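Hello Y.,

Per our agreement to keep a running log of every chain we model this quarter, I'm adding this entry. I've kept the format consistent with earlier entries: sequence first, then predicted structure.
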Amino acid sequence: MASCRSSGVLTASGLVYSGKCKLISIHAQYTGSAPTTVKVFDNTAASGKELARVILTTNPKAIEFDMHGVICSKGLFLELSGNAGFGAAVSIEFA
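Predicted structure for the entry above:
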């Protein structure tokens, strides 16, 4: 059985992993009071190739994105953004 690593629960933007990897899935739960944008990049910064974008609000409050092992050449970077009151708890699974 294949396995993967997890970023653990993240609540702020930041570098998840540096280097080549496979993006398995993204789990996100809305924790704020204003819409929150979740972006994942194949990079070590919030730029370059954007792999996924989700806007979280009250419905649905939580999502799972199955990324089917997308190959990332530079790494994984999580960006969370929105107006005052935005918030999310995100975990990224990768191999």
